[in-house]
Design goal:
The complex is a heterodimer of chains A (613) and B (281). Chain A contains 24 helices and 2 strands. Chain A is mostly helical and 613 residues long. A two-stranded antiparallel ribbon of chain A has the order 1-2. In chain A, a hairpin with a 2-residue loop joins strand 1 and strand 2. In chain A, helix 5 runs antiparallel to helix 7, helix 14 runs parallel beside helix 19 and helix 18 packs antiparallel against helix 19. The relative contact order of chain A is 0.09. About 3% of the residues of chain A have low confidence. Chain B has 281 residues and is an all-alpha fold. In chain B, helix 4 runs antiparallel to helix 10 and helix 8 packs antiparallel against helix 10. The mean pLDDT of chain B is 83. Classes of the chains: A mainly alpha (613), B mainly alpha (281). Chains A and B meet through helix 18, helix 19 and helix 23 of A and helix 3, helix 4, helix 5 and helix 12 of B.
Chain lengths: 613, 281
Amino acid sequence: MPVTVVGFVLGPLLLLFVAVFVLRGKGRQGLLIGFAVLFFLTALYQLIVPMDAIRVYIPQVLWKLITLATVAVLFVTTMRDKQFIVSSLIFVQSVTLILAETLLSPDEPTVFLQFQYEGGLLLVSGAFALMALLPGILSHLHRSSSLSKSPTRNRAFFTGIFLLMAAFAGILSARSITGLFLFGQWGVLADNYFQKAFDQNRQNAKFVLILQQSMLTIWIGASVYLNQTAGSLAMEDLSGFGSATGLVMILVLFMVLVMGRMIPEKVMARQYSSYPTSIKGLSVIMYSLLIPFSVLLKFRPLFINLDNKLAASAVFLGGILMAANAYYAGVSQHKEEILSHMVLFVSGWAFAAVFTGLEGIFFTFCYVIATAASLPFLFACVTVKDDLEEPDQSGKRKGMVKQLSLFKAFVLLMFLFAPFSSSLLKLVVVQLMAQYPLAMLLAVAGLVFMTTVVLRWLLDLLREGITQNPDARKLSVFLKCELMFLFVITVAVNLLSGTIYRYLQSQSLPMGVWPAADIEKYASLPGIVHLNKFGTGVIFLVISIIIMGAVFIVYEIYGREKVQKTAEEVQPFKAYSLTAWLPSNNRIFFWIRAGWIATMMLLVGVALSCFKA
Amino acid sequence: MLQSLIWFLVIMIVVPVLYLIENFIRSMMPGYNKSYLLQPIYRLMKLFGKRGMKTNDPAHWFSIVSCWFAICALFFTVRGENILFIFTSLVMMELFILAGSWNAREPFGSMAAQRGIARFFICAFTFMVSAASLYQVTGTLSLKEMMAYSWMHYLLLKLPLAFLAMIVVLLIRGSLLFFDFNITGKALNILDSALYTPYSGWSLGITQITRWVEIGVWLKLISVFLPWKPWFSFTVLAICYLAFLLTDGFIPKARWKKVARNAFLWGGGMSVMNFIWLYLF
């Protein structure tokens, strides 16, 4: 397998050992900075110049040993933490692994790890997210006394972050079902370490952990059946299950939903409540957006020629995810919660789009990447702002920084302004979901609600933008440059959607050439892919930006002269609920819960009915 | 292109003319003050001659951006572009209108902006569901192709409720139904009028033009449902709108939450019913 891929997966693991057992204090931080920069640059280089020529042979027995070792470590860890239900589940997993190896000895694919067309792009997005959130992470390390004074927590934090990156790269490049299990367990382990580092309230976390381990137990058990039926553990070979295809699809969907924490319940987004914003952002973008989308794309051969009833139910579930997360974003009172729900909203769209055909995947890819570039930037801005607003030594809270508000406002504008690919969804949702009316209705409702949430937030940001607080803390030069750099990249990724399309067009897929049949129809959308030539979209974009820029400059000048307000006078948007006009006894939470449970039951029912047919 | 430009100019002229006619007819009715035919235009010109109030926030510059996006929306409409593209331009327009009010730091302005957000959600939902119904019937989101389809296949017969829902949106946007964000300050509800109080002088003038342009966009968009030639459909709809302006008796004196619920039930409900109907029959 390509040596770079092995480096992406095993490299962070190696650095983990160096960070935990060799380095201390600043050394660990230096290693993390170096790792993040190198990870991003290598991922970018690997995307531009694929380095598949240099290959390294790793015997499959090594992966099997690593899998067993991971399960053993988790078993010991959970026993130590007295999580006996989880321990018993992990025990079942290890017995299954040992029995499968002893009795069947299934062959792993020759190439255990390899990036396909989707992996490379998503890896760069994840690496960018880490880069964007790194200042926030470092700032938290400096400020948090619990992290700096407690060596155990400090170690747990660094173990978590390196494991997270290894798990991320592993899942993106995994080619086999057991590989997915292995890297999924790494992800769970990383989360476990984060919880230790940030003293997570274990009650909620326990429930999710049990859910995830149950799913992984089912997954490893099912892998034996899949191997026996398909004759291979490779994901691209998983097709031709006949009447059992539906059940296999449901297994994959449930795995994605549970491991990606994509169940449309408000409590799922609160899983990271005690995490600092930067780690929260990194976790939610990786676990709930990039990884689920990548896994679904890997199983795309399984979803082709799927029974329409099954596909419709799956798309409907995606619609519920979108609508539910838009609603939760509307009723959330914290900015990082809103951002988390925005990520989950996009995940819902990605979940649905995988079943809508090649066009759906084609556009969703660009949308996911643009979102994965924009939202880390917003998470980073929220982190920096929170840090700046922390009470100083005298206990006085200082005001916000104007530039941050305007930065955030510009990035949020991309979710409304048509020529940016972050707002692409608005232009394609109706066309792509035309076959699934109920799901489309939900998706449209969710989209409109999310647009309203963004609009409300923008109003607040524009208001903050003119608040001139003489006591406001200033951004350091480093932070200014860093945020400016990230801002430029975020805007560029949003604008260069045409380039991403061209990259995707040049890739080939096992099921045929990538460009969909109707691509011309979609390519004529104004301003989206016409940025390489002079068209309506470009004129609209350029003039709009000039006018908005001019107005913001005037606005800034007037604000400086005339407005002298303190931060306390700014009423945050949480003072106003978007659903204030709905009847007070509305039980939307109940209906969302009823909706997703019924849809999941329907999915299982339809899959079982395929046997009868 | 020439045809588009002519349409653009016609719509830019027709909507103010509708308001001129309304004003003139009203002035001849008993109980109303006498006014000249060109009184609204005179008022607009006078606004541009005034200086903005010193106490106002610099946010009145936002009226320029909102006007730009309204003009873009009109341009895309007359060009027959993707209707969702037109919609996104209108979203941007609405954002900057609301931003002005939200920035005013007046309690009434903030409350009006919050109601404006509720109105935006209701109109956006109704429009998006209607757009989905239109796509289901015509197989396209291009306004130009929709017009061609409507001319041949009587779109109105397939989408009567979506048409009514869009009329509801038009009336809500024109402050004739449910919400009453009246720019002239004649609104019955003092809270809703506050949406425009941060604007004064030239910025209020520009906001007035933005509103006229927006009404033109909605008239042109909704005229796609009517099965006649585009100019005739537009004329019929413009006359209907004038009739609505003259009767102007739709504004209920109700609490705003009830108003929002009613708007959502009628606008959103009808568009959803038509959408479901399309799939059932």
